[in-house]
Design brief:
By secondary structure, the protein is an alpha+beta fold. It has one domain (35-236). The chain contains four helices and 14 strands. It has helices spanning 8-27, 72-78, 147-155, 163-179, and strands at 30-33, 37-38, 48-50, 56-60, 63-70, 110-119, 124-125, 132-136, 141-142, 186-187, 190-199, 207-219, 225-236, 239-242. Strands 2-13-12-8-9 form a five-stranded antiparallel sheet, with no helix packed on it. The chain has a five-stranded antiparallel sheet with strand order 3-4-5-6-11. β12 (207-219) and β13 (225-236) form a beta hairpin. α3 packs antiparallel against α4. The longest helix has 20 residues, at 8-27.
């Protein structure tokens, strides 16, 4: 038997090739995320009803508190006249019809939910949207953005208080004031609805709990809440990786 001699350079070259292949496999992808959807009825907390349109409704006697994830496509349709100018679109919830030139996809600016309340049970009650909390299964937490925070977000794009940029800022903030859920007191026989905007979720967030904390049901003579509750909704989405030449990989 003749022993083969393998040079050190040859070994290092082979290791380098293997490393490059592995690195290419690990880095040659981008994440994709599917739309948020409610988990099945039986997995929701007690008192929940899941609708066909993705709404999850908490029902207590004749009180209903509903939460539904809203896609960018739906937001662009609702504010169609403000979503057709690419990065200069004035839809405050999305990037309008702009597409990332590298990925050809439409990135999300925020994560938006529609909150609806129907009160036919209590003399008056209140849901404070700022007390909402999203807790992901991987430990990440997200608090909603207030009107002030959203206004400050867009104020960073304004140079001076005149011109087209300031005009776009005014349009965006006007839409926010009209469409966000304010959290006013809801008296018996009244209904209210509006959007609650969160920061965009990280790509590794797959399953989450949307919690409305300290929902106020009864008040004393000084209008201080004496009966409150927390309401929790469960949502999930598909996440995975997109590799070059493929539409998507197996979900993570």
């Amino acid at each position: 038997m003749v022993a083969k001699t393998v040079s050190l350079d040859s070994v290092l070259l082979r290791i380098g090739v293997i490393f490059a292949v592995l690195l290419g496999c690990a880095c040659g992808y981008r994440y994709y995320v599917g739309p948020l959807e409610p988990v099945a009825d039986q997995e929701q907390t007690s008192g929940m009803r899941v609708e066909d349109d993705g709404t999850v409704t908490f029902v207590k006697e004749r009180l209903e508190i509903s939460v539904r994830p809203v896609t960018d496509e739906e937001l662009n349709r609702q504010f169609a006249g403000y979503s057709r100018e690419g990065l200069e679109s004035t839809n405050p919830y999305t990037f309008g019809d702009w597409r990332d030139p590298e990925t050809k996809s439409v990135p999300s600016r925020f994560t938006v939910f529609l909150l609806k309340v129907k009160n036919y049970t209590y003399p008056k009650m209140r849901v404070d949207p700022i007390k909402a909390l999203i807790i992901a299964d991987n430990g990440r937490e997200y608090r909603p953005l207030s009107l002030l925070e959203l206004e400050e977000y867009y104020a960073a794009y304004v140079v001076g208080y005149a011109g087209n940029k300031y005009a776009r800022y005014q349009v965006r903030t006007d839409i926010l004031r009209k469409s966000l859920y304010y959290g006013d007191v809801i008296f018996s026989g009244q209904e209210a609805e509006g959007f609650v905007a969160f920061p965009r979720f990280h790509e590794d967030v797959k399953r989450m709990r949307f919690r409305l904390e300290d929902v106020m049901l009864r008040f004393d003579v000084w209008d201080e809440p004496i009966e409150t509750m927390d309401v929790e909704y469960l949502f999930q989405r598909e996440i995975g990786r997109v590799y070059p030449g493929k539409e998507k990989s197996a979900a993570l």
